[in-house]
Specification:
Blueprint (H helix, E strand, L loop, with lengths): L4 E4 L11 H9 L2 E4 L2 H10 L6 E3 L5 H13 L4 E4 L11 H10 L4 E4 L4 H8 L7 E6 L4 H9 L7 E5 L5 H11 L4 H12 L3 H19 L4 H8 L4 H12 L3 H6 L54 H8 L3 H6 L1
Parallel strand pairs: 1-4, 1-5, 2-3, 2-4, 6-7
Protein backbone atom coordinates (compact mmCIF):
# COMPACT_ATOMS: atom_id res chain seq x y z
CA UNK A 1 0.00 0.00 0.00
CA UNK A 2 1.40 3.41 -0.97
CA UNK A 3 2.06 6.16 1.53
CA UNK A 4 0.62 9.68 1.56
CA UNK A 5 2.04 13.03 0.48
CA UNK A 6 1.09 15.90 2.81
CA UNK A 7 1.23 19.48 1.53
CA UNK A 8 1.99 21.48 4.68
CA UNK A 9 1.64 25.26 4.47
CA UNK A 10 4.33 27.13 6.44
CA UNK A 11 4.22 30.60 8.08
CA UNK A 12 4.87 33.77 6.12
CA UNK A 13 6.99 35.71 8.62
CA UNK A 14 5.08 34.86 11.83
CA UNK A 15 5.63 31.48 13.49
CA UNK A 16 2.36 31.93 15.38
CA UNK A 17 0.50 31.22 12.14
CA UNK A 18 1.71 27.59 12.11
CA UNK A 19 -1.23 25.41 13.15
CA UNK A 20 -1.09 22.56 15.71
CA UNK A 21 -2.30 20.20 12.97
CA UNK A 22 0.67 21.18 10.79
CA UNK A 23 3.12 20.53 13.65
CA UNK A 24 1.46 17.17 14.35
CA UNK A 25 1.71 16.20 10.68
CA UNK A 26 5.43 17.02 10.51
CA UNK A 27 6.02 14.99 13.65
CA UNK A 28 4.21 11.92 12.27
CA UNK A 29 5.53 11.62 8.70
CA UNK A 30 8.55 9.47 7.83
CA UNK A 31 10.49 12.26 6.10
CA UNK A 32 10.14 15.88 4.96
CA UNK A 33 10.87 17.29 1.51
CA UNK A 34 11.89 20.95 1.79
CA UNK A 35 12.58 23.75 -0.66
CA UNK A 36 15.56 24.86 1.47
CA UNK A 37 16.56 22.45 4.22
CA UNK A 38 18.35 25.22 6.15
CA UNK A 39 15.20 27.32 6.39
CA UNK A 40 12.98 24.34 7.22
CA UNK A 41 15.43 23.12 9.88
CA UNK A 42 14.94 26.39 11.79
CA UNK A 43 11.17 25.85 11.68
CA UNK A 44 11.48 22.25 12.90
CA UNK A 45 13.86 23.22 15.71
CA UNK A 46 11.46 25.93 16.89
CA UNK A 47 8.64 23.40 17.28
CA UNK A 48 10.88 20.58 18.53
CA UNK A 49 10.32 18.31 15.53
CA UNK A 50 13.15 15.97 14.50
CA UNK A 51 12.65 14.27 11.12
CA UNK A 52 14.91 13.42 8.15
CA UNK A 53 15.06 16.28 5.64
CA UNK A 54 15.64 15.96 1.91
CA UNK A 55 15.93 18.74 -0.65
CA UNK A 56 13.27 19.27 -3.31
CA UNK A 57 13.35 22.47 -5.36
CA UNK A 58 13.23 23.85 -8.89
CA UNK A 59 16.76 22.80 -9.80
CA UNK A 60 16.60 19.16 -8.67
CA UNK A 61 12.92 18.27 -9.13
CA UNK A 62 13.63 16.10 -12.19
CA UNK A 63 15.72 13.70 -10.06
CA UNK A 64 14.29 14.29 -6.58
CA UNK A 65 10.64 13.92 -7.67
CA UNK A 66 10.88 10.26 -8.83
CA UNK A 67 13.01 9.43 -5.77
CA UNK A 68 10.33 10.77 -3.44
CA UNK A 69 7.64 8.94 -5.44
CA UNK A 70 9.51 5.63 -5.04
CA UNK A 71 9.57 6.05 -1.27
CA UNK A 72 5.86 6.91 -1.25
CA UNK A 73 5.05 3.82 -3.34
CA UNK A 74 7.06 1.79 -0.83
CA UNK A 75 4.65 2.89 1.92
CA UNK A 76 6.44 5.86 3.49
CA UNK A 77 4.72 9.16 4.25
CA UNK A 78 6.17 12.53 3.24
CA UNK A 79 5.46 16.16 4.11
CA UNK A 80 6.24 18.71 1.41
CA UNK A 81 7.07 22.21 2.69
CA UNK A 82 8.31 25.45 1.16
CA UNK A 83 10.26 28.29 2.75
CA UNK A 84 6.99 30.21 3.25
CA UNK A 85 3.41 29.64 2.16
CA UNK A 86 1.50 26.79 0.54
CA UNK A 87 3.40 24.17 -1.51
CA UNK A 88 2.46 23.38 -5.12
CA UNK A 89 1.00 26.86 -5.79
CA UNK A 90 3.32 28.45 -8.37
CA UNK A 91 5.88 26.10 -6.90
CA UNK A 92 7.90 23.01 -7.99
CA UNK A 93 5.66 20.94 -5.73
CA UNK A 94 3.12 21.04 -8.55
CA UNK A 95 5.22 18.50 -10.51
CA UNK A 96 5.44 16.16 -7.49
CA UNK A 97 1.67 16.30 -6.96
CA UNK A 98 1.17 15.48 -10.63
CA UNK A 99 3.47 12.45 -10.29
CA UNK A 100 1.48 11.25 -7.28
CA UNK A 101 -1.81 11.67 -9.16
CA UNK A 102 -0.47 9.61 -12.07
CA UNK A 103 0.50 6.75 -9.71
CA UNK A 104 -2.60 6.92 -7.45
CA UNK A 105 -0.66 8.13 -4.42
CA UNK A 106 -2.96 9.99 -1.97
CA UNK A 107 -2.23 13.71 -1.54
CA UNK A 108 -3.62 15.63 1.44
CA UNK A 109 -3.44 19.37 2.04
CA UNK A 110 -2.76 20.80 5.50
CA UNK A 111 -4.16 24.33 5.09
CA UNK A 112 -2.36 27.42 6.31
CA UNK A 113 -0.76 30.60 5.01
CA UNK A 114 -1.00 31.48 1.33
CA UNK A 115 0.56 34.73 0.06
CA UNK A 116 -1.92 34.87 -2.84
CA UNK A 117 -5.04 34.87 -0.65
CA UNK A 118 -3.51 37.14 2.02
CA UNK A 119 -2.45 39.77 -0.54
CA UNK A 120 -5.80 39.64 -2.30
CA UNK A 121 -7.76 39.98 0.95
CA UNK A 122 -6.01 43.21 2.03
CA UNK A 123 -5.68 44.74 -1.45
CA UNK A 124 -8.97 46.63 -1.43
CA UNK A 125 -9.52 45.48 -5.02
CA UNK A 126 -12.40 43.37 -6.37
CA UNK A 127 -12.07 39.81 -5.03
CA UNK A 128 -15.22 38.22 -6.46
CA UNK A 129 -13.37 37.25 -9.63
CA UNK A 130 -9.61 37.25 -10.04
CA UNK A 131 -6.83 35.58 -12.00
CA UNK A 132 -3.54 34.31 -10.60
CA UNK A 133 -0.59 34.62 -12.98
CA UNK A 134 2.17 33.34 -10.68
CA UNK A 135 5.76 34.31 -11.47
CA UNK A 136 6.45 36.00 -14.78
CA UNK A 137 9.13 34.56 -17.06
CA UNK A 138 12.73 35.65 -16.53
CA UNK A 139 13.07 36.05 -20.29
CA UNK A 140 12.25 39.65 -21.18
CA UNK A 141 10.49 38.80 -24.45
CA UNK A 142 8.36 36.04 -22.91
CA UNK A 143 7.44 38.26 -19.97
CA UNK A 144 6.24 41.07 -22.21
CA UNK A 145 4.28 38.68 -24.44
CA UNK A 146 2.61 37.28 -21.32
CA UNK A 147 1.62 40.76 -20.18
CA UNK A 148 0.36 41.72 -23.62
CA UNK A 149 -1.91 38.66 -23.62
CA UNK A 150 -3.57 40.07 -20.47
CA UNK A 151 -4.35 43.46 -21.98
CA UNK A 152 -8.10 42.75 -22.21
CA UNK A 153 -8.34 41.12 -18.77
CA UNK A 154 -10.93 42.82 -16.55
CA UNK A 155 -10.54 40.71 -13.41
CA UNK A 156 -8.15 41.52 -10.57
CA UNK A 157 -4.75 40.04 -11.43
CA UNK A 158 -2.27 38.70 -8.88
CA UNK A 159 1.42 38.16 -9.63
CA UNK A 160 4.31 36.74 -7.64
CA UNK A 161 7.71 38.41 -7.93
CA UNK A 162 11.10 38.29 -6.21
CA UNK A 163 12.09 41.53 -4.40
CA UNK A 164 15.25 42.07 -6.46
CA UNK A 165 13.27 41.90 -9.73
CA UNK A 166 10.32 44.00 -8.63
CA UNK A 167 11.60 47.23 -10.16
CA UNK A 168 11.88 45.73 -13.64
CA UNK A 169 8.55 43.92 -13.41
CA UNK A 170 6.75 47.11 -12.38
CA UNK A 171 8.28 48.86 -15.39
CA UNK A 172 7.00 46.07 -17.68
CA UNK A 173 3.55 46.23 -16.08
CA UNK A 174 3.43 49.99 -16.60
CA UNK A 175 4.48 49.54 -20.23
CA UNK A 176 1.86 46.83 -20.83
CA UNK A 177 -0.85 49.06 -19.30
CA UNK A 178 0.35 51.92 -21.52
CA UNK A 179 1.28 53.95 -18.43
CA UNK A 180 4.58 55.71 -18.15
CA UNK A 181 6.49 54.86 -14.93
CA UNK A 182 5.86 58.43 -13.74
CA UNK A 183 2.12 58.18 -14.36
CA UNK A 184 1.96 54.77 -12.62
CA UNK A 185 3.94 56.25 -9.73
CA UNK A 186 1.46 59.13 -9.44
CA UNK A 187 -1.54 56.78 -9.48
CA UNK A 188 0.06 54.61 -6.78
CA UNK A 189 0.70 57.67 -4.61
CA UNK A 190 -2.89 58.89 -5.07
CA UNK A 191 -4.32 55.49 -4.12
CA UNK A 192 -2.06 54.65 -1.18
CA UNK A 193 -0.72 57.98 0.04
CA UNK A 194 2.96 57.10 -0.46
CA UNK A 195 5.38 56.18 -3.22
CA UNK A 196 5.93 52.51 -4.21
CA UNK A 197 9.50 52.61 -2.91
CA UNK A 198 8.44 54.11 0.44
CA UNK A 199 5.54 51.65 0.75
CA UNK A 200 7.80 48.64 0.18
CA UNK A 201 10.62 49.95 2.39
CA UNK A 202 8.34 50.71 5.34
CA UNK A 203 6.61 47.34 4.99
CA UNK A 204 9.92 45.43 4.93
CA UNK A 205 11.30 47.35 7.91
CA UNK A 206 8.13 46.70 9.92
CA UNK A 207 8.33 42.98 9.16
CA UNK A 208 11.99 42.92 10.13
CA UNK A 209 11.12 44.65 13.42
CA UNK A 210 8.63 41.87 14.19
CA UNK A 211 11.28 39.28 13.34
CA UNK A 212 13.79 40.97 15.65
CA UNK A 213 11.20 41.02 18.43
CA UNK A 214 9.62 37.58 18.03
CA UNK A 215 12.21 35.36 16.32
CA UNK A 216 15.36 36.83 17.94
CA UNK A 217 17.24 36.83 14.64
CA UNK A 218 20.54 38.64 14.14
CA UNK A 219 20.56 42.16 12.73
CA UNK A 220 22.64 41.02 9.76
CA UNK A 221 20.01 38.37 8.92
CA UNK A 222 17.25 40.99 9.18
CA UNK A 223 19.20 43.27 6.83
CA UNK A 224 19.58 40.48 4.25
CA UNK A 225 15.89 39.55 4.45
CA UNK A 226 14.98 43.22 3.85
CA UNK A 227 17.16 43.34 0.74
CA UNK A 228 19.73 45.81 2.08
CA UNK A 229 23.25 45.53 0.70
CA UNK A 230 24.87 46.42 4.03
CA UNK A 231 24.04 46.29 7.72
CA UNK A 232 24.89 49.99 8.06
CA UNK A 233 22.30 50.90 5.44
CA UNK A 234 19.68 48.79 7.22
CA UNK A 235 20.50 50.35 10.60
CA UNK A 236 20.25 53.89 9.19
CA UNK A 237 16.89 53.12 7.55
CA UNK A 238 15.59 51.49 10.75
CA UNK A 239 16.71 54.48 12.83
CA UNK A 240 15.17 56.97 10.39
CA UNK A 241 11.77 55.21 10.35
CA UNK A 242 11.46 54.08 13.98
CA UNK A 243 13.86 56.36 15.85
CA UNK A 244 15.86 53.57 17.48
CA UNK A 245 18.75 51.26 16.66
CA UNK A 246 17.76 47.70 15.59
CA UNK A 247 20.38 46.14 17.89
CA UNK A 248 18.97 47.97 20.90
CA UNK A 249 15.41 47.13 19.83
CA UNK A 250 16.25 43.42 19.55
CA UNK A 251 17.54 43.45 23.15
CA UNK A 252 14.83 45.70 24.66
CA UNK A 253 11.76 45.92 22.38
CA UNK A 254 9.72 49.10 22.73
CA UNK A 255 6.42 50.06 21.06
CA UNK A 256 7.04 51.04 17.42
CA UNK A 257 4.77 52.69 14.81
CA UNK A 258 4.75 49.61 12.55
CA UNK A 259 3.55 49.98 8.99
CA UNK A 260 0.50 47.91 8.06
CA UNK A 261 -0.16 46.99 4.43
CA UNK A 262 -3.49 48.44 3.42
CA UNK A 263 -5.59 48.37 0.30
CA UNK A 264 -6.10 51.09 -2.26
CA UNK A 265 -8.52 53.84 -1.31
CA UNK A 266 -11.84 53.58 -3.10
CA UNK A 267 -12.58 56.86 -4.80
CA UNK A 268 -16.27 57.40 -5.43
CA UNK A 269 -15.44 60.42 -7.59
CA UNK A 270 -14.07 58.07 -10.25
CA UNK A 271 -17.61 56.83 -10.83
CA UNK A 272 -19.06 60.31 -11.30
CA UNK A 273 -19.13 62.19 -14.52
CA UNK A 274 -16.43 64.81 -14.80
CA UNK A 275 -17.62 68.38 -15.10
CA UNK A 276 -15.87 71.26 -16.80
CA UNK A 277 -14.69 74.31 -14.90
CA UNK A 278 -16.73 76.49 -17.25
CA UNK A 279 -19.95 74.77 -16.06
CA UNK A 280 -19.35 75.64 -12.40
CA UNK A 281 -21.35 78.73 -11.34
CA UNK A 282 -20.37 79.25 -7.73
CA UNK A 283 -17.49 78.11 -5.55
CA UNK A 284 -17.76 78.29 -1.76
CA UNK A 285 -14.62 78.17 0.37
CA UNK A 286 -14.81 77.64 4.10
CA UNK A 287 -11.77 77.78 6.38
CA UNK A 288 -11.96 75.22 9.16
CA UNK A 289 -9.57 75.44 12.10
CA UNK A 290 -8.93 72.11 13.74
CA UNK A 291 -7.83 72.11 17.39
CA UNK A 292 -4.45 70.61 18.14
CA UNK A 293 -4.48 67.14 19.65
CA UNK A 294 -2.19 65.39 22.06
CA UNK A 295 -1.56 61.73 22.68
CA UNK A 296 -0.96 60.79 26.30
CA UNK A 297 0.59 57.38 26.91
CA UNK A 298 0.75 56.04 30.44
CA UNK A 299 2.05 52.51 30.71
CA UNK A 300 1.27 50.26 33.62
CA UNK A 301 3.73 47.67 34.90
CA UNK A 302 2.15 45.66 37.68
CA UNK A 303 -1.55 46.50 37.25
CA UNK A 304 -3.85 43.76 35.97
CA UNK A 305 -7.18 45.64 36.02
CA UNK A 306 -8.40 49.19 35.42
CA UNK A 307 -8.64 50.50 39.00
CA UNK A 308 -5.21 49.13 39.85
CA UNK A 309 -3.88 50.75 36.72
CA UNK A 310 -5.31 54.15 37.74
CA UNK A 311 -3.64 53.88 41.13
CA UNK A 312 -0.33 52.94 39.59
CA UNK A 313 -0.18 55.76 37.01
CA UNK A 314 -1.70 58.26 39.44
CA UNK A 315 -4.78 59.43 37.54
CA UNK A 316 -8.09 58.43 36.05
CA UNK A 317 -7.23 57.82 32.38
CA UNK A 318 -10.79 58.32 31.13
CA UNK A 319 -10.92 61.61 32.96
CA UNK A 320 -7.74 62.73 31.20
CA UNK A 321 -9.03 61.67 27.81
CA UNK A 322 -12.37 63.42 28.20
CA UNK A 323 -11.02 66.61 29.84
Amino acid sequence: MSGTLYLVATPIGNLGDFSPRAVETLAQVDFIAAEDTRVSLKLLNHFGVKKPLISYHQHNQAAAGPAILDRLLAGETCALVTDAGTPAVSDPGEALVRLCAQHDVPVLSIPGCCALVSALAVSGLATGRFTFEGFLSVNKKSRREHLQSLAAERRTMVFYEAPHKLRFTLADLARAAMFSPWYAHRIFREQTGCSPADYIRRLRLSRSALRLRDASIRVIDAAVECGFESVDGYQRAFLRVFGCNPKEYAVRPVPLPLFTAYGAKFQECLRKERCKISDIKNVFIQVVEKPSRRVIIKRGVAAKEYMGYCEEVGCDVWGVLTS
